Amino acid sequence: MGPVFVWMNGGGENHWVTLVLKGRMGVDGTGSNADAVGARVHLNAGGRTQVQEVRAGSSYLSMDSIALEFGIGTAVMVDEIEVRWPSGRIQVIEDVPADQVVAIEEPGS
């Protein structure tokens, strides 16, 4: 038997936000697909802009997460989240506190 190694992540002082998007197809049968695959998000925090797109992919016995995870450094607030839905709708959300999971539902027409 060899040594046992345990990785302990004490966390850090930086902040984050995770976005979980839901298209209108999963709400009332209109708009973008339920998992929001293809939605593009522009997130502004701490003077920086990050862009991510919801993608779906899988492999044998695995699946990629469709949640979007952003590291925002020392910023304690997200200044603006712009979601460009596959349906063409654009949604803007401002002043979102850091360190949380935010569920965003596509707005109706």
From TrEMBL:
Name of a matching Pfam family: UnbV_ASPIC
Classification via InterPro entries: Crtac1, UnbV_ASPIC
Residue intervals of the ASPIC/UnbV domain: 36-102
Domain of life: Eukaryota
The protein, known as: ASPIC/UnbV domain-containing protein
